């Protein structure tokens, strides 16, 4: 993409709209309420820097994958990762409820705990969303890990919900 200034302008409009949700590789990024951002050139590809009081991330932008009135999708490179990822900015009608934010923050913390405890295992999926078809409320984080020929499912509940 030659016109990074246009992307910078579009991201600025999204952030100023106040109701923006940011996802990385399909996972909602907890802690990016009151989001601030900066785009800057660093060589051939620009960097996008996002931060709030709770979280901070910087990604190298490879290309713009999609741009619409309610959605911007970037292909990005994360330091230490060999494959490119996706960073999505979505306009929302209203901010997430506080309980949902707390559950998503616990999901993100629990994913880090599992990664430290099982460094060779890979997450197949991890969710804090309600799945009433299978009788799981949104209070439980659940998922599946895979390591070699083994895989296991897990369920966790933040201590504050007991």
Description:
The protein has 162 residues and is an alpha+beta fold. Helix content is 20%, strand content 43%. It folds into 2 domains: 4-91, Protein Yojf, Chain: A; 98-161. It is built from 2 helices and 10 strands, in the order αβββββββαβββ. The model has no long low-confidence stretch (mean pLDDT 79).
In short:
The chain is α+β, with helices and mostly antiparallel strands and 162 residues long. Helices cover 20% and strands 43% of the residues.
Poorly predicted tracts of residues: none
Largest sheet: 7 strands, antiparallel
Strand order of the largest sheet: 2-1-7-6-5-4-3
Give the overall silhouette. Answer: globular
Number of domains: 2
Distance from N terminus to C terminus (CA atoms, Å) equals 49 Å
Fraction of residues in helix: 10-25%
CATH architecture call of the largest domain = Distorted Sandwich
Q: Mean pLDDT, rounded to whole units? A: 79
**Alpha plus pi helix count:** 2
Number of strands: 10
CATH top level assignment of the largest domain? Mainly Beta
H/E element string?
HEEEEEEEHEEE
Secondary structure category: alpha+beta
Rg on CA atoms, Å: 17 Å
CATH topology of the largest domain: Protein Yojf, Chain: A
Secondary structure elements and pairings:
Layout: H1 4-16, E1 20-24, E2 27-28, E3 36-42, E4 45-51, E5 56-68, E6 71-77, E7 85-91, H2 98-117, E8 122-127, E9 140-147, E10 150-157
Antiparallel strand pairs: 1-2, 1-7, 3-4, 4-5, 5-6, 6-7, 8-9, 9-10
Which characteristics define this entry?
about 160 residues; alpha+beta; Protein Yojf, Chain: A; 2 domains; 7-stranded antiparallel sheet; 3-stranded antiparallel sheet; 10 strands
């Amino acid at each position: 993409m030659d016109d990074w200034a246009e992307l910078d302008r579009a991201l600025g409009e999204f952030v100023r709209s106040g109701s923006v949700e940011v996802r990385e590789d399909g996972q909602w990024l907890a802690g990016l309420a009151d989001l601030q951002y900066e785009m800057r050139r660093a060589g051939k590809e620009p960097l996008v820097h996002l931060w709030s009081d709770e979280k901070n991330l910087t990604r190298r932008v490879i290309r713009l994958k999609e741009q619409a009135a309610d959605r911007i999708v970037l292909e990005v490179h994360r330091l230490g990762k060999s494959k490119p990822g996706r960073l999505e900015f979505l306009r929302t009608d209203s901010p997430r409820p506080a309980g949902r934010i707390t559950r998503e923050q616990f999901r993100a913390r629990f994913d880090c705990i599992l990664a430290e405890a099982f460094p060779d295992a890979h997450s197949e999926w991890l969710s804090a969303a309600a799945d009433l078809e299978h009788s799981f409320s949104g209070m439980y984080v659940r998922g599946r890990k895979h390591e070699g020929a083994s895989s296991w499912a897990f369920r966790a509940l933040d201590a504050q919900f007991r």
